[in-house]
Write a structure and sequence with these properties.
The structure is a homodimer of 467-residue chains. In chain A, the strands form 3 sheets. In chain A, strands 3, 4, 5, 6, 7, 8, 9, 10 and 11 form a 9-stranded mixed sheet that branches. In chain A, helix 5 runs antiparallel to helix 13, helix 6 packs parallel to helix 12 and helix 7 crosses helix 8. The first copy, chain A, is globular. Chain A has 3 domains: 71 residues, Arc Repressor Mutant, subunit A, CATH 1.10.10; 125 residues, Aspartate Aminotransferase, domain 1; 241 residues, Type I PLP-dependent aspartate aminotransferase-like (Major domain) (Aspartate Aminotransferase, domain 2). Helices cover 40% and strands 13% of the residues of chain A. With 467 residues, chain A is α/β, with parallel strands linked by helices. Chains A, B: This is Transcriptional regulator, GntR family. Chains A, B: GO terms for molecular function: DNA binding; DNA-binding transcription factor activity; pyridoxal phosphate binding. Chains A, B: It comes from Microbulbifer marinus.
Chain lengths: 467, 467
Amino acid sequence: MAQNFRYQQLEAWLLRGIEEQRWREGERLPSIRTLCREHAVSKATVQHALQRLEARGLVEARAKAGHFVSPRGVAARQPLSRARIEAPRPVTAGDLLLDIMGRGAAFDLLPDHHGGDLPAGIVALNRSIGRALRRQSGDDFQYYDTPAGDTGLREQLALHLSRRGARLEPDQLCITSGCQHALFLALMACCERGDVVAVESPGFYGVMQLIEQLDLQVVEIPTSSESGMDIDALTEVLQRWKVRACVVSPAFATPSGASMTDAAKQHLLELAQKHDLAVIEDDIYADTAFGPVPDPLKSFDSDNRVILCSSFSKNLSRDLRLGWISGARWHGRILHLKLVTQLASSRYLQQGVAEFIADGGFAAHLRRLRNDLQGRRDRLLALLHTWPGDVRVSVPQGGLAAWVELPDTVDTLAVYPQALEQGIVITPGPLFCVSGQFKNCLRISFAHPWDDARVAALGRLPDLLLK
Amino acid sequence: MAQNFRYQQLEAWLLRGIEEQRWREGERLPSIRTLCREHAVSKATVQHALQRLEARGLVEARAKAGHFVSPRGVAARQPLSRARIEAPRPVTAGDLLLDIMGRGAAFDLLPDHHGGDLPAGIVALNRSIGRALRRQSGDDFQYYDTPAGDTGLREQLALHLSRRGARLEPDQLCITSGCQHALFLALMACCERGDVVAVESPGFYGVMQLIEQLDLQVVEIPTSSESGMDIDALTEVLQRWKVRACVVSPAFATPSGASMTDAAKQHLLELAQKHDLAVIEDDIYADTAFGPVPDPLKSFDSDNRVILCSSFSKNLSRDLRLGWISGARWHGRILHLKLVTQLASSRYLQQGVAEFIADGGFAAHLRRLRNDLQGRRDRLLALLHTWPGDVRVSVPQGGLAAWVELPDTVDTLAVYPQALEQGIVITPGPLFCVSGQFKNCLRISFAHPWDDARVAALGRLPDLLLK
């Protein structure tokens, strides 16, 4: 949702306040007069914004009393389901996950519906890559890049991370073929067959798949859709079982978009030190932050045990296939594994991206992306608000998806094939754990611009899910 | 060596005849008159060519009798050393290999000396990739490619392979990040920890590295620099030990450039069937063939057990990082491993390469490349011929390197650091096995155009090696 008009800007500001519980369920919003004054807008503009929030069911107008946050407001309906703690176990991927991942792994409601305009940032990125290609000379093409990757790109990444408190030298970074590849190298470097790995539940299916392929075991840590991994639950698990590594996404974790507080991050690192854990930080969503970009776990890593993994797939382009890893005490082994399994990454591609960052194109792209994503999230939450019954939705402050909890009677796995018949791909909750929980949940992406086809597809879901 | 002058063309033709033993050691070459007539050149041209071969020590002029192949001609000095058969063992990579691979893995004498002009084929390839980038539209960039890769590229590859007798559907191919990545997926798919893998000796160090990382064991099969893997030795090994897989490069195997006969390929597949082996075919050098491109093992694979692995790194550009795999009965598992460890490959890159092939750009590039490589090999052999003492050299009919066997007293590992002090990177023979053999051997690349710096670097080696 573009916020070009003043009423849209005000609407978004009010919505954020509701989501962030500045005004809680049942509380009164600032008066029209106050809003006019503080935002320097006309009365008509304020009324327009309030009407739109009313239409979305987020606000109630009470005669002569003002506007109040609706008791069914989104922010009051955070998902409640929590994972159970169960003993470590091996992972067996279901056919369903493979089926969905085989459909492009984009987890889009309409995977064949490529719409919208190519963003200016991607056009600039492609020009930069084109320039790097044209700069190839002599027999450059006969040489592999070094396993760690292009120095220029690693310098840009180090600079980018330093703004978030993570002081890394370019030598502490290695370029990968995306974040999944980085997670693979991380797990391969710090675990041996049979080791137990703690993961978020609900959490990223790609990690569970890696754990299966590497013959590791998984223990699921309950994770809140507001504050991420439950550190008390992790404490309990660490007391009961020997755990080798913990994979965690402190910033806008998929599927819920939850973020950990800095205090929780520090607590996690204390536990890691006490129990000698490798901490694998999936940082892939951090740059989509609607507000300030949170500091990574890596910025608190005084003990050299946080392996930072990320990529450009969520904040720039999934088709770049470029990620990075900072491997802490395991970095040497990770470099070796990169070399042995893949030799190198494409040099011209890295040079093109490095130039794009150095030229400021990446920062400009991120500004637009964050604004677009926040608008798309708002639209999703508004659309979900029209669903009947007890529907709970996470209110992520970054990332690309919301986590939706439906009544207990709903079985999203059973709905999957029915939705597919209508050309709609849903992402059922059980994909985000190995224990079959969350069958009444699903993740819905807001990565794509909302157009008629996408709104219509989402509009068909209540009939499918809640019939 | 450019072959722009008639005497150069004739010289190269005669050299090939000697290498291919059309005229054996001590035999008489065609008379000057015959050469004039059959090649439609002047007597002066023929004399010029013969003088050059004489200067290189390949031909002897005998008064009133004509020109004879020198008893010290290159073709008569194929390397003789053979690997010993030893029991299966785990692999431990030496620091030296890591050091050399860390230097760009190009195994170039002068890794920092990027010379020559960008070939027309690479310019055309880069234009094609640029066009594919500019064709990106809408939110294409938000989608991952399917794990198997772009259909258009797989169709082109299937067509390319069908010309060599390997009838594959595009569905039987999966795109990878290079051949090393393909070999990794192949070994991961068909082996379990502790399994024994048979490899060529001398053979490709990258495979030994993978075997180490996957906790497999290796058994080395003696390999001739003329005819490749010794099938009798393989037979003996299979009788003595349980072997799970065999990695073999039937076409221009590194380091020697040897090729297996079709009969040997068929024999190998009979053994594979009898002993239930997975056969992993490293096909990466096939397209560099100076003569007809040999049929791959895969074209004889009636039993669906040959996993074909290859890439564009040796026949187009190392910086593309694009390879492919056809996984036979393991293909489903390979697709899954690609998905889990890397999700996808870059779509626009694959589309650019597919268009380059479809437009005929790749075929034109291969024609030029083969001609260039053959000239560079001739030049290398001529330069090596000036080395004193009993120096034996393979005469590859394709590939990018020759295998040089020096007197037993030479220790190439000891020379490595001394050469490095002079800015020269040599590739010592022991890198090509796990048993410490071949210390008096080294591989020398002819991938790069010969210029003064490169000739001078090679010229310094006899002093270093043979002092």
